[in-house]
Amino acid sequence: MISIADSREAAAGRGLELARVLLVESDVASRLTLQTLLRACGYTVDVAASAAEAVGKLDESAYELVLADSHMESPETGRRMLAYARRKDYKPATAMIRKHRDGNAREDRKKSSRRMLVEAEDVTTFLSQVAELISLRATRRSERTLRMSAANN
């Protein structure tokens, strides 16, 4: 059986670039848990503890996915930080992380229907949602490149 470390070394040896994720999480325990989980699955993960720190990282590096805590300094702060990320030239996928279900989950989904909320309670679902967001971003980038190429010919 191949370990995670072995598979990472093999991927690095082939020059395979894995998706880069920016995790913005104010709670230290949650940040370390999610960072460890994402790294164990082969993602390159940078972390930020605040929106201000995240903005600095977004300006320094390109990310395929930006995940933000839904309970940052304020909900509006998280939304503004994700909006900033979406305006970057490299157009990362973005999502809010909801760690605990508070109240009526159906009502929460209705209120946030335009924004993707990643549920961090179930590891399998969380990792599936992360992979889906990165895949969707890659598909959109490919389609955009093809449209631009067709327009230039």
Give a verbal description of the structure.
With 153 residues, the protein is of the alpha/beta class. It has a single domain (19-100, 108-152), classed as Response regulator (Rossmann fold). It is built from six helices and five strands. It has helices spanning 4-13, 28-40, 51-60, 75-86, 105-111, 123-152, and strands at 20-24, 44-48, 65-69, 93-98, 117-119. Strands 2-1-3-4-5 form a five-stranded parallel beta sheet, sandwiched between helices. Helix 5 (105-111) links the parallel strand 4 (93-98) and strand 5 (117-119). The termini are far apart. The model is unreliable at 108-115 (pLDDT under 50).
Walk me through the topology.
Elements: H1 4-13, E1 20-24, H2 28-40, E2 44-48, H3 51-60, E3 65-69, H4 75-86, E4 93-98, H5 105-111, E5 117-119, H6 123-152
Parallel strand pairs: 1-2, 1-3, 3-4, 4-5
Helix pairs in contact: 3-4
